[in-house]
Design a protein that fits this description.
By secondary structure, the protein is an all-alpha fold. The chain has 18 helices and two strands.
């Protein structure tokens, strides 16, 4: 594969995003089905309240950090697309911890990345001098000796005992990363709790831990939630819906943590597919990670790539057909929509397994005990 011109790629992506923003404005004004997600309107309303000196939580269904509303104040003073442009534009342990803590404050779900990030900073990858050894992370063809080291590294990560595993992840850097990112998260939480009290805590944080959305969505749980929403749910029911997601997350981390970008992609796809609530905006969470894994895939667009795309898009369009009939036509098609959700979960699982099968495992850091440091260099 040829080299990638980063500057040209960034310019192209910026132009494409700007074009989509302009098209979105046109579709919102001329078509019945809106391009802009309803959550963006909620953000904009909350930002307008902040601009007027009021609490963003006075806007019903606003369940995000107040910091988001502050950033979108120009939506009401400059242009309503300000936030879309902002979202489109959107090394060291201390810097990484700062940004990670801030991101988790914004959106709770990136907490799932904490364990693989800690594993990257673990003792397996740290030299006696305290420097991590960086593998020559490249999608070029590897030598037989490099492939042997990679297989050994993958095996060592996957099958180390629990006690060895726990001891290996406790280092100065992992403790520092956890402490600083936690401080950043709780700092912003404390600031906005002082400003908005329990409204902020309940709407922006606690709500997401106990969320049971009765409206139809891609999740396989939506129909059960719809039928029993008024009666509430027992602790056992909540645990049963959470366990599959938790088990899949741990399995992916256990086997793929060494190949960090690939692990984060798999985690995100699995988190979305098995979540209690899943809407189309969630797909963006893993789409943005695709460029980091595609160069390491052996899957060709013809035919397996086209099969994966067709299965995923076809099952989604099938669901959208029933969703349209329910939402816009008022047809009673809840059972058909739920069956479409089951089919969509099968499609997500199939595509995930195909991606795993055709991926070239490419760890960023090689464990010292297995690599012999023959093909690694210090990260300066």
């Amino acid at each position: 594969m040829g080299s990638i011109d980063l500057r040209r790629m960034m310019l192209f992506s910026a132009a494409l995003r700007l074009l989509l923003v302009v098209y979105g404005e046109w579709q919102d004004a001329h078509m019945k089905v809106r391009y802009t997600d309803i959550d963006y309107l909620v953000f904009s309303d909350a930002a307008a309240m902040v601009a007027a000196g009021r609490s963003p939580f006075e806007r019903s269904t606003y369940r995000y950090s107040p910091l988001l509303a502050f950033l979108l104040v120009p939506n009401s003073t400059f242009h309503r697309s300000w936030g879309k442009l902002l979202f489109s534009a959107a090394g060291k342990v201390v810097q990484a911890a700062f940004w990670y803590g801030l991101i988790v404050h914004f959106r709770i779900y990136p907490i799932i990345y904490s364990l693989p990030l800690v594993l990257v900073l673990s003792k397996q990858n740290i030299s006696p001098a305290g420097k991590p050894y960086l593998w020559q992370w490249s999608f070029s063809q590897t030598t037989s000796s490099q492939s042997s080291d990679i297989r050994a590294a993958k095996t060592s990560v996957s099958w180390t005992g629990p006690w060895v595993f726990i001891r290996g992840i406790i280092t100065r850097d992992t403790v520092l990363f956890g402490f600083l990112s936690g401080c950043m998260f709780f700092l912003w939480t404390a600031i906005f709790f002082l400003l908005y009290g329990w409204d902020f805590l309940n709407e922006a944080l606690l709500y997401h831990l106990t969320r049971t959305d009765p409206r139809h969505n891609f999740s396989i749980y939506f129909y059960h939630i719809y039928l029993h929403h008024q009666q509430g749910f027992s602790a056992i029911e909540k645990l049963i819906s959470f366990l599959p997601q938790l088990m899949v997350q741990f399995a992916l981390i256990l086997f793929f943590a060494g190949d960090l970008p690939f692990c984060l992609f798999l985690q995100t796809v699995a988190f979305v597919a098995f979540n209690k609530v899943m809407t189309a905006q969630y797909f963006v969470w893993f789409f943005c990670l695709l460029p980091l894994i595609l160069p390491w895939s052996n899957m060709r667009l013809k035919w397996k790539g086209l099969i994966c795309i067709s299965v995923w898009m076809g099952s989604q369009l099938h669901w959208l057909m029933w969703g349209y009939l329910l939402e816009f036509k008022g047809w009673s098609v809840f059972i058909q929509l739920w069956l479409a959700s089951l089919l969509f979960l099968v499609a997500n699982t199939f595509v995930l397994l195909m991606v795993i099968k055709h991926h070239r495992y490419s760890p960023i850091f090689m464990p010292l005990a297995k690599s012999g440091m023959a093909h690694a260099r210090k990260l300066e």
